[in-house]
Amino acid sequence: MKSLITGITGQDGSYLAELLLQKGHEVYGVVRRSSTVATPRIDHMLFPEEKIKLIYGDLGNGLDSIIYDIKPDYIINLASMSHVRVSFDVPIYTMDTNATGPTRILEAIRRIGLKDKTRFYQASSSEMFGMSPPPQSETTPFSPCSPYGVAKLAAYWITKTYRDGYGLFASNGILFNHESARRGETFVTKKIVRSAVRIKLGKQDKLILGNLTAKRDWGHSKDYMKAVIKILEHDEPDDFVVATGAHYSIQDFLEKVFAKLDLDWKEHVGFDSRYTRPKEVPALMGNPEKIKRVLNWEPEIGIDQLVDGMIENDLEEEKRDL
What we know:
The chain is α/β, with parallel strands linked by helices. 40% of the residues lie in helices and 16% in strands. It folds into two domains: 201 residues, NAD(P)-binding Rossmann-like Domain (Rossmann fold, 3-Layer(aba) Sandwich); 92 residues, UDP-galactose 4-epimerase, domain 1. The longest helix has 22 residues. It starts with a strand and ends with a helix.
């Protein structure tokens, strides 16, 4: 089996590559050329032994030839402009990457004639639900309120369109928020954990955040990548919500992290409106009943274990720096 992953250098891509290697897949990853090193999360699969193969490219150009050369059994599109707040600043780039990019992949599968060979997975997002009240399921109306959410919704619908119109095996996983020790530094959960650890070690005094009342359904990236594989291995293409079924406010998450480090968050946390969105999604909480029933998937890592793992990782990294 050959699997092609876009976004392989992110937290999801790294976990997914590990899981597919364990299943005996030949794993290829599409990476953008950069003057800075972008592979820390996957270096252990590149050195000393090259377990995965990296190919330079992006969602804008070159995908046709990559897909033609590899003719993969699975194409998993994880690549995106992934920061919701920043999507308001770069809406055109967000639409081109997150909406037109998946369309290019689907069209390549169709034009190359891989309909009966290649299975496609699109990483959809809970941000598509936007203002629809929780719990959100596969039948909840979509109401996105950010360029990111709108672009992800366009990709969701084009995936369904190619499935229904051309008979492609094309599935959507509507993933709610998922974190891990490999989470990027600009995301609020990682920002909270890293700052709290630095405050504990005396390397930082203040943490500045935006809205603390927004509620999110937080799971673990590795659990969710196991769900992605189950979606691809299913007999029929379909769309699934992937979530834990519980949600917490950003303040709840903040309190958990600081309490585990014996810190009073109120002494260290400030507010800055620059970190708020023009329009905020108040509450996201998924209903994972369908994926539990149809694919027998269950989240294995709870929020407290998730927080513990993130704190442990950042403590080790910051102590090494000291």
